[in-house]
Design brief:
By secondary structure, this protein is mostly beta strands. Strands 2-3-4-5-6-7-8-9 form an eight-stranded antiparallel barrel. A hairpin with a 5-residue loop joins strand 8 and strand 9. It starts with a helix and ends in a 12-residue tail after the last strand.
């Protein structure tokens, strides 16, 4: 019996996920600055200011900034930044453990939203709105 319970625990997903549409995600973050962390460690990945539903500014944990465009593609949110204009960074948003998350479509990495606020990042050339 213990072996069965242990097998079920190992096989169970780490997070019970509820899908979030890209439109609902963009509604939640438009006009806000969002901080992303690795759920298991709490390590800050970066912060992103979603200026509106199409424009974004990303700042990495080291402080580097990149302006970009954001769009919904099917069930994904995709961003393209000025420092890598030929790369689409796509994510599938979901809710788990009462928090907004998203999973990278290329690596499977999951990030959790830990903070949403109405403030600027302080990046050069960052638009007010």
């Amino acid at each position: 019996m213990r072996a069965l319970i242990a097998a079920l625990i190992v096989a169970a997903p780490a997070l019970a996920e509820t899908p979030v549409t890209p439109e609902a995600f963009l509604d939640a973050v438009a006009g806000r600055t969002v901080t992303f962390v690795i759920p298991e460690t709490g390590q800050i990945v970066g912060a992103e200011r979603f200026i509106d539903r199409r424009r974004t500014v990303w700042t990495r944990a080291n402080g580097d900034c990149a302006h970009g465009e954001v769009r919904a593609v099917g069930d994904e949110i995709c961003c393209r930044y000025e420092d890598r204009p030929n790369v689409d960074w796509c994510w599938v948003p979901f809710e788990a453990e009462g928090a907004l998350h998203y999973r990278a479509t290329d690596t499977g990495e999951v990030q959790r939203v830990t903070d949403m606020r109405d403030s600027l990042l302080g990046c050069d050339g960052e638009p007010m709105s």
